[in-house]
Every structure is written in structure tokens, then in C-alpha cells.
Amino acid sequence: MIMSKKQKLIIFDTTLRDGEQSPGASMTREEKIRIAKALERMRVDVIEAGFPIASVGDFEAVEAVANVIKDSTVCALARALEKDIDRAGEAIRGATSGRIHTFIATSPIHMKMKLRMTPEQVLEQAVKAVKQARKYSDNVEFSPEDAGRSELDFLCKVLEAVINAGARTVNIPDTVGYNVPEQFGTLIRNLIERVPNSDKAVFSVHCHNDLGLAVSNSLSAVMNGARQVECTINGLGERAGNAALEEIVMAVRTRQDIFACDTDLDTTQIVPCSRLVASITGFPVQPNKAIVGANAFAHESGIHQDGVLKSRETYEIMQAQDVGWSANRMVLGKHSGRNAFRTRLNEIGIAFNTEDELNDAFTRFKELADKKHDIYDEDLQALVTDTNLAAENERFKLVSLKVCSETGETAKASLTLWLDGEEKKSSAPGDGPVDATFKAVESIINSGTELQLYSVNAITSGTDSQGEVTVRLQKGGRIVNGQGADTDIVIASVKAYINALNKIMEPAQRAHPQL
Ligand code: KIV
Ligand code: ZN
User: Got the DSSP string for 403-460?
Assistant: First the structure.
């Protein structure tokens, strides 16, 4: 019997670009590099690293990602404008494999109201942009923005012209999340059938989740011939988000009886990557979220538990370990040595650039193990985040903190901060220990920031769990997220606050990209 080989479904991750367009989800260059490395480890085919024309910070982040990533293609976004394409081309110059993704809107409403251009002008500009992008890379992608509300005949004309001009991928975005699955699948099939040179390009889709249909629309498109899906970790993205990578990949993998294609992804990296993105962006994952939610594989009802114990398949269609939930999650303890520590970190995909970084993390691990009996993978992730944060926290550092909190009394915090090479002390009362601590920090730093979000998450179960805190601050239109982890949540909170302050006090790295 001859087995027919499955076609490849290309996974294009846009967490660092469209994902970052979620208000409040901005990431620093170092954070983008960490996420890009996690995506590479997962064997994502294309990583859209940013929109280089948006700001110097954006340009530098794309450039840095392009320089470190070797096994995935690194893509830069550009409007169909000469200056955007030049900037994108420059940003991916160091990439082992680089792609330019250029776009212009094709729907009547966008052309008339936003661009104030005629369809003929849009067509001409699209072709010109693709030709210019080809000067920087053979790997050019074109998107007719708001394709989901564009006229079919015009869309066919534009796609034929850009493929002739050298686009190797044509991406069909449902920019405003307006389509429904059958309609969107039919659109993809019609385009592939009607565009005369459709066999010269990969058809891709990019769906937004305004009606909660981004994943369904993307899968319907795959059933109708799309061979690239654009998606984000945890479904992060503009407004209601983009299609969730983990759901697309696991639907296709689990239903190989239905799909004619499969991805090359290492699905065991999904949960670690989801956690990393949630912790960096401060966008937590809801417990009942498919694949990566804490309850995704938890069976509560007695009937389900009984069934699963008798035969796992009675209620489980996927194995938790296959998406990276480890079966035996207790990994290390107080007596574990440096080697066991390094080995376990490698197993969960964490590597250090230098021995010093490893030593620093190991010291923190020993401190944590003194406070907490069992150390889980989640603790290791947080520890490494904390080690990275320590490296970033250059201007301000917490030296010590004392908090008094008593029933019926006003809480009071006294702390010492290291500020630009000098120790500073302060005390402040507050409405609870966290409020008092933040006020004490502010009495030294006077940052003029506005607190937009304060959230605490227990990393593992048990009262000795580390608390992971996210603090989102805003100042002059700039938004940053700070993180901190500790078994003491007041300390975790002040670490997160100081991390956010360090970021916001840096000279502005980036503006929020405007498309
Ligand atoms: O949603 C959209 O249309 C986009 C394009 C830039 C592809 O993000
Ligand atoms: Zn988008």
C-alpha cells in the first residue's frame, strides 16, 4: 500500500507583532527575544517579529530577533510604502531566513474612507510594494487587508498581480473578524480556483476573533486549501485577538482523519510557551481555555474520573503530556545539585547564555528551595524570569522591605532601595501592605506613572506556592508590564512594581504601532 504523504501546514506566529497590538501587551526587546527563542524551540515556521517602521524600538527588536533566530524564518511587517519596506528590509538583513510581509487594504470601505484611493491606485501600489520588497528578499508575503469584506473580483485581480510581481505567500486576512466559517472557507476555495497563477503561491489566512470565530474560520480555510495559518500564542492580538496557535495546531494534529495536512511543531513546547507569553504580557490564561488552560485536562466529575481511570480515551481526546503538561510535575528539591538543575532547565527548553547567569539562577533556586519543599517546572520558569528581570533592573533595586499589617491598624511599609548607585530609605502608610509598599517606593522615585493593572497568580498549588505578580504602568501614552515572583506576595509585588518602573524610566523604546 502506498501511503500518501501529508502536505505541510505552515505555522506563522504573529504574537510579537499582532499580539503586541493588544493594548497593554507591549514587550521589551529582551522579552521578544525570549519569546522568539521559545517559538523557535517549538519549531514554528515563521515568526513575525514586529513592524520596524513603527519606532526605533520596534526596528531594533526585529533586528535582534533576526540576528539570533536560526531555525525559523523571521518576518517584518511593512505597509505598501517605500519607506516601510526599506526599513523592514534593513531589519531582517541579518536573518538566516528573512521574509517581508507587505499589505494594503482592498475592501471598499478601507480604500474609500481610510486610504482615499481608487481600486486602480491600490492595485498599482500593491504591485510596486511587492517588487520593491523582492529587492531585499525572495521570500515576500502580501496581504490585502480586510480581505474578508473585499469584492471577490477585485481580490482575484490583486492577488494575480502580486503573485506575478513575486509574492510567494498571499495572506487573506479577516481583519475585523466579520466572516463565518463556511463563508470564509468558500472564499479561500474560490480564490484558489479563480486566481490563474494561484499554484505559484502559498495561500495563507489571518483571522481575528471579534465574533469568537478566528480558529473556526482558519480551520475552515485549511479544509479549503489554505496552507499557512497566522496565529498567536494564547490567541493574543488586536481587540478580541487572533486565532490561537495552540488550538489550530492541536485541532489539525488530533483530527488527522479530517485534515489533509499537518504541522512540524513540537507540541510539547506549547504549555511552556503559553506560560512565558502570559507572564511577560500580563495577560493571564483563563482556566477553561482549550489546551493551555489550567482545567483543560482536569476531570472534576466522578463519572469522568471513573471513565478516565478505566480507559483514558473515554473522556480524553489528547494527552496532557503531548502539549507540555508534565505528568510528574514535582521536579527538584532542596538537595538537588547544579547538574540536576541545569538538566531539568534544558528539558523544559531553558538555556543560559553564560555560566554566570546559570550560577545566579542556581543561587536563587537554592534560596527558593529553602522556603518551598517541592520545586515544580512552573517555579523554574518563574525563577528564570526573575533572574532575567534582575539583569534588566539596573536603575532601581529592592534592598530590603519590612511591612506591618494588623487587623484594625493602618498597614505600614519601610524599605530600602538601591537607586543609581545609592541606598535610599523610606516609609509609608497604606491601604494594606501592597499599597503601603508601592507608596513607599513612590516616595523615593516619584515616577508620575498611573497603575493600570495589578494581578497576582499562584504559580503552583499550596500555600507555599510562589505568587507571580504583574504590574502594568502607564506614563505619557507609554505602557509597560513588570513581573515579579516570590513565595511572599508582598515581595513579589514590589519586585514587579520595580521591574515596571525600570522599564518605564528607560528612554522610550517604542511607540504603539499604528497600522
Ligand atoms: O489583521 C490584519 O489585517 C493584519 C494585517 C497586517 C495582515 O494584521
Ligand atoms: Zn491582524
Answer: EE--TTS-EEEEEEEEETTEEEEEEEEESSHHHHHHHHHHHHH----EEEEEEEEESS
pLDDT of residue 510: 44
End-to-end alpha-carbon separation of the chain, Å?
52
The string over 469-497, giving b where at least 16 C-beta atoms fall within 10 Å of a residue's C-beta and e elsewhere, is: bbbbbbeeebbbbbbbbbbebbbbbbbbb
The answer to pTM > 0.85 is: yes
The pLDDT assigned to 388 comes to 65
pLDDT at res. 420: 85
Which among 400, 416, 398 has a CA at the least distance from the CA of 482? 398
Q: Is 50 in the pocket of ligand 1 (CB under 6 A)?
A: no
Q: What is the DSSP string of 213-226?
A: -HHHHHHHHHHTT-
Residue 272: other Cβ atoms inside 10 A: 24
Residue whose C-alpha cell reads 540536576 in the numeric block? 340
What is the DSSP code string of 18-61? TGGGSTT----HHHHHHHHHHHHHTT-SEEEEE-GGG-HHHHHH
Run of H or E residues at 98: strand 98-105
d(CA 310, CA 254): 21
Strand partners, 483: 470
On whether the CB atoms of residues 35 and 15 are closer than 8 A, the answer is yes
Distance in angstroms (rounded) separating the CA atoms of residues 456 and 458: 7
Half-sphere exposure of 286 (CA within 13 A, CB side): 5
Q: Which ligand 1 atom is nearest residue 173's CA? A: 3
Looking at this protein, which amino acid is placed at residue 119? P
Nearest CA to ligand 1 atom 2: 175
User: 301 is written with which cell numbers?
Assistant: 466529575
Residue ranges of E strands in 115-270 = 140-145, 169-174, 202-207, 228-231, 261-262
Which residue(s) pair with 203 in the sheet? Answer: 170
Residue 411 grid cell: 498597614
Quick check: CB of 145 below 6 Å from ligand 1?
yes
Residue 171's beta-bridge partner residues?
204
Q: How far is the CA of 144 from the centre of ligand 1 (A)?
A: 8
**Ligand that comes closest to the CA of residue 77:** 1
CB 143 less than 6 A from any atom of ligand 1? yes
Beta strands (DSSP E) in 253-327 are 261-262
> Which residues face 228 on adjacent strands?
10, 204
Q: Residue 515 CA: which ligand 1 atom is closest?
A: 6
SS3 227: coil
Ligand 1 center–CA 145 separation, angstroms:
6
Using the atom order of ligand 1, give the atom closest to the CA of residue 171: 7
Q: Is the CB of 12 under 6 A from ligand 1?
A: no
Neighbour-count burial of 133, counting CB atoms closer than 10 A to its CB (0-12 exposed, 13-18 middle, 19+ buried):
buried
For the chain, list residues with pLDDT below 70: 1-4, 299-301, 327-331, 349, 386-394, 507-515
Residue that is written with C-alpha cell 507540555 in the block: 324
Collect all residues with Cβ–Cβ distance below 8 Å to 455 and sequence separation of at least 6.
Answer: 282, 284, 469, 470
